[in-house]
Amino acid sequence: MPLINHVRGEQVPDAMLNIRTPIVRIPLWMVVLWWTVKGLARLAVAYVRYWYVTIPATGLGWLYLRYGWPGPVLAIAAPLAALGLWALVQWPSFVHLAGFPALSRYRRWWYGRSWHPAMATAGLAVAFDRHVVLPVLKRVRCRPGGDELHVRMVTGQIPEDFAAVAERLAHTFGARAVKVLLGRRQGTIVLLVQRGDPLAATVPALPVPVVPDFTALSLGRREDGATYCLRLFGTQVLIVGATGSGKGSVIWSFVRALAAGVRSGLVRLWAFDPKGGMELGAGAPLFERFACRDYRAMADMLEEAVKMAQERADRLRGRTRQHTPTVDDPLIVIVIDELAALTAYLTDRQTRDRIRGALSLLLSQGRAVGVHVVAALQDPRKEVLPFRDLFPTRIGLRLSEDNHVDLVLGDGARDRGALCDRIPQSTPGVGYVVLDGDPTPMRVRFGYLTDHDITEMAHEYGRMRVIEGEVA
Fold first, then answer.
1. Poorest-confidence range of 67-71, 102-106, 148-152, 295-299?
2. In the chain, fewer beta carbons within 10 Å around the N or the C end?
3. C-alpha distances in angstroms, 372 versus 232, 270, 287?
């Protein structure tokens, strides 16, 4: 339709409506000035941001301008010589104060490069309002054997979300394993990326303490390098592991930690070895009572321990809630090498029921009165050990099936890093425990006692013993 000029009343031919962007002409000097100011601002920001590179470079440049090549060469050589001397004279402090901080900076950059794809492929990236929100990598700290990644979770995430994909993150970062720890602040976690294996080497037998500390028995070494200590007061201990997993290492580490108390009369050990004494027989002088063949004698001993516990309870009622060991009223520790042989595999039903009943009473009533049970087992299923839940402290060694991990250490233990089914056969004595106040299982390796160590310990700390009712 043709356009009409209403003022003049004339018909105007059809034409396209042209809209042109107004052109503002800026002088060249102003453009150059803007680019210069913008470049200098970016340079200043980069100079401040990467101060650990720019300030030394500035200093070296000034030394070169002032003194020529000898200036920067001496400036570099002198600190290197000092660091080398420090490392030669005091290597532990050098690694702690200089080596790990420098490595932490490098690892922070290295993790940052792959952080986005790692979070996305692990399902930890959250889509919100058409944006992808990632957990924030706040800090990286290098430790012996691994790195600590301090992470701030996305709103709505929980530590279990990271624990569920810990194995995936381990493969992504090229690590041996990844464990999830709670952070100090709400909404934060610590990813412990384990690279080395501080427990690869056998842990030798630990020294025998002069006086046993029943609140902290030293049994082995933790994966963080610290000594693993177990509180015996107020607990019963269950050791679960497949054949050849190192249950003997745990049992003998217990006995060694209590050996000085055996010699002084502060501790009395009652040993049960249904395998004919093959495991515990070498240390028989350490045991006040020792049974290895007669199952009825074992039932009698357990029922005697129940009577002793009940008598102590009557005597201590109203006076104290925790028995204090003395020579006249010592701590009784019942050591059982293969518990299933007494509770599940025994063909004599009457004797088996007696043993089950006595053990149930001991486990539920003996802790406060100083009668403790340390038992080893291969199969943790309910039909094998119906009163498994009466053991507050459990130690999981190498297990044959992954679903056994949660049976031993509690629901969700495997997701939190207790890979008992992944422990190699070449590392007997390695297992997982749950420390007080920390739901994340700790990997430990218990001390290994040779036959000579056991014989020597039995000779030095042993006392008169009773073998299945007869004094020896």
1. 67-71
2. N
3. 8, 10, 14
Helix (H, G, I), strand (E, B) or coil at 92: helix
3-state secondary structure of 467: strand
Q: Element (H or E) spanning 332, and its range?
A: strand 331-336
Fold of 98-194: Threonyl-tRNA Synthetase; Chain A, domain 2 (3.30.980)
The three-class DSSP label of residue 18 is: coil
- Residue 472 CA to residue 467 CA, distance in Å, equals 7
- The domain ranges of the chain are 98-194, 217-471
Q: 365-395: string of b/e by CB count within 10 Å (b at 16+)?
A: ebbbbbbbbbbbbbbbeeeebeebebbebbb
* Contact (Cβ atoms closer than 8 angstroms) between residue 253 and residue 219: yes
CATH number of 217-471: 3.40.50.300
- The pTM (predicted TM-score) of the whole model is 0.74
What's the farthest any 2 CA atoms get from each other in the chain?
Answer: 136
Nearest to 362 by CA among 381, 343, 348: 343
Separation of alpha carbons 368 and 338, rounded Å: 24
Task: Give the CA dihedral 395, 357, 243, 176, nearest 10 degrees.
Answer: -20
- Contact 434/416 with Cβ under 8 angstroms? no
For residue range 429-443, list pLDDT tens digits in order: 999 998 766 677 889
Helix 70-89 / helix 51-67 crossing angle, nearest 10 deg:
130
